[in-house]
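Re: that backbone. Tokens:
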């Protein structure tokens, strides 16, 4: 192995390892015991199975790997691996994003505190320490406001308080979740602290960007559809149906935010709402987006953010135009069912995946599972990602695919069979921002 062409990859999917190899890189993979696969063992040049979220285990291991086989860059594009990849960058002075900046992205309370000193329009926020803090924050900042974990993903543990009467319910939920694992699939993230913050009005969007030596390129603005009560993500659509002036405001808001956070290199996924005061950041992540948004962006813009993240440290990333041009549209639709029903059977996923306009079909539900109330992304039954001649067409095509081709049959407690459907969203031609 040539250390100058070797990448230390902290956590990865099979696809991520394959893309690194297609770039001609040697891959030294740190993989969590719950995430290993035969394909990764086959593709990677060196694999170490370790809980890569624990620095006390990672540090001595990477010191040994630095000597042999060696590596020139450390990268993670998965949330649980970001902080320790950053620590490796700092430990060996590899460049890239270091721990201080990464922690600002990962810790939502730290992000808010950092921005409060730099931005006159910063979102008001405060750590939640006790039940009385909920009343105090409501009195000071008004209602509604949000309570959420400082360190979590997928909409887990997010609550909206519309008035003082909600405080007991929310505090009980916080007490129940504190100290538990956030991800019901891999349990890699631990819920600890919670944050209270001002509720941002307006439709929600996400912004996919790539930074190189401090130059930030907004690749795509994605429409994001969530339920106002539980915040589970119901759909995504690219490109966002907003006018040019609003898009320019979004670009300026996000690039300014990235400058204030201190990021200079790599991919970022930033979530915003556009209200009466313009675009304001909900949160951001110095990694790729989830929910197949990377597939939507690749389809519409021809830009693979996974490959960009892997290629950039080696000088292999393409220089992007300031305003990437969209070609067509693409959308993700979430698959949902009635709470309490039981998954009876699943058909059509392979047939749908083979269709020319289908980018991805991911059904996480399995026969025998009970449909849970929709509280966060892990409560969905799956998703489909499709293309269309424009954004509206893609949203409608995704909804039609669920039920027509992808058939998740559900059985009620009375024994009646029905089909899961795409979560309902507005697919009108223009979403008012």
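Recovered sequence:
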């Amino acid at each position: 192995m040539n250390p100058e062409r070797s990448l230390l990859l902290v956590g990865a999917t099979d696809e991520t390892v394959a893309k690194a190899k297609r770039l001609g890189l040697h891959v030294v993979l740190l993989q969590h015991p719950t995430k290993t696969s035969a394909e990764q063992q086959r593709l990677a040049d060196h694999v170490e199975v370790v809980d890569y979220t624990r620095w006390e285990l990672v540090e001595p291991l990477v010191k040994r790997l630095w000597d042999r086989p060696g590596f020139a860059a450390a990268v993670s594009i998965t949330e649980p691996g970001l902080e320790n990849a950053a620590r490796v960058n700092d430990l060996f002075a590899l460049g890239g994003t270091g721990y201080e900046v990464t922690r600002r992205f990962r810790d939502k309370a730290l992000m808010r505190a950092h921005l409060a000193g730099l931005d006159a329009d910063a979102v008001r926020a405060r750590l939640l320490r006790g039940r009385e803090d909920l009343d105090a924050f409501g009195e000071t900042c008004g209602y509604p406001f949000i309570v959420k974990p400082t360190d979590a993903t997928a909409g887990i543990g997010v609550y909206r308080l519309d008035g003082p009467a909600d405080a007991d319910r929310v505090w009980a939920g916080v007490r129940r979740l504190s100290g538990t694992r956030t991800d019901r699939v891999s349990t890699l993230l631990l819920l600890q602290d919670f944050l209270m913050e001002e509720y941002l009005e307006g439709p929600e969007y996400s912004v996919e960007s790539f930074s190189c030596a401090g130059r930030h390129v907004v690749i795509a603005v994605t429409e994001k559809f969530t339920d106002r009560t539980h915040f589970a993500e119901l759909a995504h659509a690219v490109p966002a149906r907003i006018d040019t002036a609003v898009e320019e405001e979004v670009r300026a808001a996000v690039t300014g935010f990235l400058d204030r956070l201190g990021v200079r290199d790599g991919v970022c996924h930033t979530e915003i709402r556009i209200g009466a005061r313009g675009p304001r950041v909900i949160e951001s992540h110095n990694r790729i987006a989830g929910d197949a948004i990377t597939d939507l962006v690749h389809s519409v813009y021809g830009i693979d953010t996974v490959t960009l993240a892997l290629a950039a440290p080696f000088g292999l990333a393409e220089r992007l135009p300031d305003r990437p041009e969209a070609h067509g549209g693409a959308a993700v639709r979430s698959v949902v069912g009635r709470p309490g029903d039981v998954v009876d059977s699943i058909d059509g996923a392979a047939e749908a995946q083979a269709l020319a306009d289908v980018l991805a079909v991911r059904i996480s539900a399995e026969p025998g599972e009970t449909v849970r109330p929709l509280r966060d992304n892990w409560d969905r039954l799956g998703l489909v990602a499709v293309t269309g001649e424009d954004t509206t067409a893609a949203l409608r095509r995704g909804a039609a695919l669920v039920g027509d081709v992808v058939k998740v049959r559900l059985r009620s407690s009375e024994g009646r069979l029905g089909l899961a459907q795409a979560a309902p969203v507005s697919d009108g031609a223009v979403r008012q921002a």
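The first helix runs from residue 14 to 22. The chain has a mean pLDDT of 91.
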